[in-house]
Design goal:
Elements: E1 5-10, H1 16-27, E2 30-33, H2 34-47, H3 58-66, E3 72-77, E4 82-87, E5 90-91, H4 99-109, H5 112-125, E6 131-135, H6 138-142, E7 148-153, H7 156-170, H8 174-179, H9 182-198, E8 211-214, H10 220-236
Parallel strand pairs: 1-6, 1-7, 2-6, 7-8
Antiparallel strand pairs: 3-4, 4-5
The structure holds 2'-deoxycytidine-5'-monophosphate (DC).
Length: about 240
């Protein structure tokens, strides 16, 4: 069967990655979470004093990128059945999902030199096709020629509820639990929507030829079935 590129874009916390991972597994494709790549760059900046509360030290970050100091890779984790994200050889999968990173990632993702670096790496990953990639600009900027494009969305409230539940489940200590606040999660979702849709380079927008999926009232199983059906239609064409 012919191999294609599947681009899945949409708002934050709309369940894109769960759907994309599931589809990749079902059809034997490689899955790439591009949000994790922007998160890993953010973590690098935070750890190296390039992202203090006062804002991003753009020049220092650009110099690190130009010097090839930021290498992001993925390795399949047989236990979870999913790829883990590595920053310069260190597994950072859990750390990049923390609120401290979520709250800082959108301004990093708006920097043209960060986007240029990651877009190039993503295009290289899709050279052989047979890939499911999720993000914000995959169908518009990274692979405008993708054979299958899906734009996923859901209301901000539904997305914040999902993210909040996920964070509750992940909290390991009483302290972490106590620090969680729904209004803060909702605010973070809304702020990221705004920054992601209004940045100058590759803003989040629906590709004209994308299939649209509003999953506010759908179960995971219904979404997965919908996605698999669309894939089958496209490869049969
Ligand atoms: O999908 P996520 O929440 O892990 O994404 C993290 C951030 O990275 C989010 O603010 C949007 C940004 N992003 C992007 O600008 N382009 C992508 N292709 C993927 C993510």
């Amino acid at each position: 069967m012919k191999k294609i590129i599947i681009a899945i874009d949409g708002h934050s916390s709309c369940g894109k990655s769960t759907m994309a991972k599931q589809l990749a597994k079902e059809i034997g494709y490689v899955y790439v979470d591009t949000g994790a790549m922007y998160r890993a760059v953010t973590l690098y900046a935070m750890r190296n004093g390039m992202y203090p509360d006062a804002g991003i030290q753009e020049e220092a970050l650009k110099a690190a990128i130009d010097a090839g100091k930021i290498l992001i890779t993925f390795r399949f984790n047989a236990e979870t059945g999913r790829p883990d994200t590595y920053l310069n050889g260190e597994k950072v999968e859990d750390e990049i999902r923390q609120m401290e990173v979520s709250n800082r990632v959108s301004p990093i993702a708006a920097l043209p030199f960060v986007r240029a670096l990651l877009t190039e790496q993503q295009q290289a990953m899709g050279k052989e096709k047979g890939i499911v990639m999720d993000g914000r600009d995959i169908g518009t900027a990274v692979f405008p020629q993708a054979e299958m494009k899906v734009f996923v969305t859901a209301s901000a409230k539904v997305r914040a509820e999902r993210r909040y539940k996920e964070l509750l489940e992940k909290a390991k200590t009483q302290e972490e639990l106590a620090a969680l606040n729904f209004d803060e999660v909702l605010k973070n979702v809304e702020e990221r929507d705004y920054i992601d849709s209004h940045r100058e380079v590759a803003p989040l927008r629906q590709a004209e030829d994308a299939l649209v999926l509003d999953n506010s009232n759908m179960t995971r199983e219904e979404q997965s079935a919908w996605l698999l059906e669309k894939y089958k239609e496209i490869v049969a064409e």
